[in-house]
Amino acid sequence: MASTTASSAAEIVSKLNINDLDFPPNLAKNLHLFSPDQIELAKMLIEMGQSHVFQHWAEPGVDDDQKKAFFDKVAKLDSSYPGGLASYIKTARELLADSKAGKNPYDGFTPSVPSGEVLSFGDDNFIKFEEAGVKEAQNAAFVLVAGGLGERLGYNGIKVALPAETTTGTCFLQQYIESILALQEASCKLTQALYGTSQKEIPFVIMTSDDTHTRTLELLESNSYFGMKPTQVKLLKQEKVACLDDNDARLALDPHNKYKIQTKPHGHGDVHSLLYSSGILKIWRDAGLRWVLFFQDTNGLLFKAIPASLGVSAIKQYEVNSLAVQRKAKEAIGGITRLTHKDGRSMVINVEYNQLDPLLRATGHPDGDVNCETGYSPFPGNINQLILELGPYLEELTKTGGAIKEFVNPK
Ligand code: UTP
Prior knowledge:
Pfam families: UDPGP (PF01704)
Strand order of the largest sheet: 4-3-2-9-13-10
CATH superfamily of the domain at 113-241 and 268-326 and 380-400: Spore Coat Polysaccharide Biosynthesis Protein SpsA, Chain A
Catalytic activity: a monosaccharide 1-phosphate + UTP + H(+) = a UDP-monosaccharide + diphosphate
GO cellular component, one term: cytosol
CATH topology of the domain at 113-241 and 268-326 and 380-400: Spore Coat Polysaccharide Biosynthesis Protein SpsA, Chain A
Radius of gyration: 25 Å
Strand content: 15-25%
Bound molecules: uridine 5'-triphosphate
Enzyme class: transferase
Family: Belongs to the USP family.
CATH architecture of the domain at 113-241 and 268-326 and 380-400: Alpha-Beta Complex
Number of helices: 13
């Protein structure tokens, strides 16, 4: 970035063909401090209705370093989002407006119960799928999304360091790693006995964020990676996005420092673009892997069902498999639902609990979400445990360069 601190504000403004009257007075007075690129960013912020961020700016000569740091941050936020900060604000504004207006994102869709396999722990069917899953596990990679802050939990540490059970105090990360290693060993033993093939390591990716990265690495290093080879574990850090103050998507400033934009992790959907841009998916595909399993930071029971679920994917040849749990009607957990549009489109997705009941009522089910003969809602509960077939997954991501459509979740 060229340094233009010597140029006058008027020179820069005329060079960029900007009318300086568009700039709030507090910014206009300081323009000479910035490079043309930074002034372009200022222009973008103003065009995007963000003049308030300059409201508290001091006279030139006061806090100049902080003003420059402000634009460094804006540049970072701009470069780390597809389409830049303007696109982020625009999308957020549209999504927030739809959410405020109570717009039904499922307009034109009819919900129905998706097809799937019901697993009952320990019965013959379960054992059959479990055996198939154990065999298949050495063709799998595991991805833990662990960039979340856990704000609602009210806990300051990283969630994967919490005890998964209280008798030994084993933390979630240890339990996950030991489970993957146990699966790796069982899978290798089985296939060695069957085909005489050699030992394979199951890759393990952890998505972190600025809030969790250092502490996750420290937890791994101070515990010798809980027995896993350090080279088997890869940490991918997601970038943060700007926090928004209101439904107009006004950028939120730090209450303690008005030159700082508050930021937070973008949501676990970032994992797809990160995996794609890191090139790791192609490495896995070229190494002959077939499955990618996604899971979350605090699910202590998960690995009891992982082998059987993977077996379901393998035997039924599911490209996308979402492991779900029994869910009481209206329980505050999203329901896995098939949605069929008037125009013929159809998809199986998670419908949030506050949307499922009204959607059912609006589409010919006057009682909404009710329990069926099993005593549970026919729409199983989403736990965000996905098993994707690597080939088709990579093909889909290649179409969008790894970008995934966003949704808004005001909390
Ligand atoms: P949650 O929905 O529990 O969100 O995340 P959270 O941010 O951790 O918690 P709150 O909302 O602040 O209370 C579900 C999973 O997604 C991960 C979390 O670590 C958890 O495993 N996650 C969430 C990310 O990896 N990145 C994010 O930006 C958000």
